[in-house]
Design goal:
It is a single chain. The chain is an alpha/beta fold. The chain has a single domain, classed as Phosphoglycerate mutase-like (Rossmann fold). Helices cover 37% and strands 19% of the residues. β2, α2 and β3 form a beta-alpha-beta unit. α1 packs across α2 and α1 crosses α6. The two termini are 30 Å apart. 34% of the residues are buried. The mean pLDDT is 87.
């Protein structure tokens, strides 16, 4: 049985001019509204996975996104990891998956360009993560001899909102 890694880009943030430090920019009011609208669709997409654990970059907009997801999905508080803010290699993401049981998923909230780079390293597919988008990858059960990591789905905020509207 596979394990799942979901890369989730933070929601729409305040303009760069709003803060002297990029890491301190928070979600905009519109970003919070759009994120809240899209969570229902996201919840539908992850409904078949077992236990979910959220990991997040400590960058403010990612942190706020992770906290909103945890609250809306009824999950434990996110775990904040510095390497998610600095874009360390994909080997660190693979280490996270060792903590996840087969059938379960790790949701990693972060920012660009790291999500796109990790996507390419994990699956060979370069994805352009817009704000509020997410991609799910299935990692093989190596004990069963499976070797291929697959992109299961990739949706942007509007796509999640459309699922929620149905």
């Amino acid at each position: 049985m596979s394990k799942y890694l979901i890369l989730y880009r933070h929601g729409l943030a305040e303009d760069k001019e709003s803060s002297e430090e990029d890491d301190l920019r928070s979600l905009s009011k519109r970003g919070k509204i759009l994120l809240k609208k899209s969570v229902g669709g996201f919840k539908t997409m992850i409904s078949n996975y077992g236990d979910l654990k959220i990991y997040s970059s400590p960058v403010l907009r990612a942190k706020e996104t992770a906290e909103m997801l945890a609250e809306e999905l009824g999950l434990d508080e996110p775990i904040y990891l510095e390497f998610l803010a600095t874009g360390s290699g994909v080997s660190r993401l693979r280490e996270l998956l060792k903590e996840i049981e087969p059938g379960n998923a790790a949701i990693v909230v972060g920012q660009q360009p790291y999500l796109s780079l990790w996507s390419q390293e994990i699956s060979g597919t370069f994805l352009r993560f817009k704000k509020g988008s997410a991609a799910c990858f299935s990692f093989p059960d190596e004990e069963l001899g499976e070797t291929k990591t697959d992109l299961r789905w990739f949706l942007q905020t509007r796509g999640f909102a459309k699922i929620n509207d149905k």
